[in-house]
Amino acid sequence: MSFTNDKPIYLQMADRLCDEILAGTYKDDDRIPSVREYAVMLEVNTNTAVKAYDELARANIIYNKRGLGYFVTPGARQQIMQERRRLFMEQQLPALFRQMHLLGIDIQEVVEAWR
């Protein structure tokens, strides 16, 4: 995985795991890779992976079964989707509409491009 400079690596890792949950790679109550496995997979320090998993556990996206590892919290996919939709509507959509206005792009053009 290549990381960007716009946000901390542990948050990018958490986002990636959320992407995988949204894509159906991990479903409710599925075991996810261990912290160490995920760190090796993404070629990062284990402490960075720990921070990513802690972040997701605090957000109730994953939970820990002592001695067994981390699992996807039931309903996590819907929770992630709701939060990402909210952020899209509040942060990305206004910027998109502003650019459309500046460039003279009509909503019908966007609809046609979508198709």
| Sheet of most strands | 2 strands, antiparallel
pLDDT averaged residue by residue: 94
- Low-pLDDT residue intervals, each spanning 5 or more residues: none
The run of helices and strands is HHHEEHH
Number of helices: 5
Bulk shape: elongated
Structure description:
By secondary structure, the chain is mainly alpha-helical. 62% of the residues lie in helices and 7% in strands. It is built from five helices and two strands. Strands 1-2 form a two-stranded antiparallel sheet. It is elongated, with a radius of gyration of 18 Å. The mean pLDDT is 94.
Give the SSE layout.
Blueprint: H1 9-22, H2 35-42, H3 46-58, E1 62-65, E2 69-72, H4 76-103, H5 107-114
Antiparallel strand pairs: 1-2
Q: What are the salient characteristics of this protein?
A:
single chain, 115 residues, mainly alpha, two-stranded antiparallel ribbon, 5 helices, 2 strands, 62% helix
Would you summarize the structure shown here?
The chain has 115 residues and is mainly alpha-helical. The chain has helices at residues 9-22, 35-42, 46-58, 76-103, 107-114; strands spanning 62-65, 69-72.
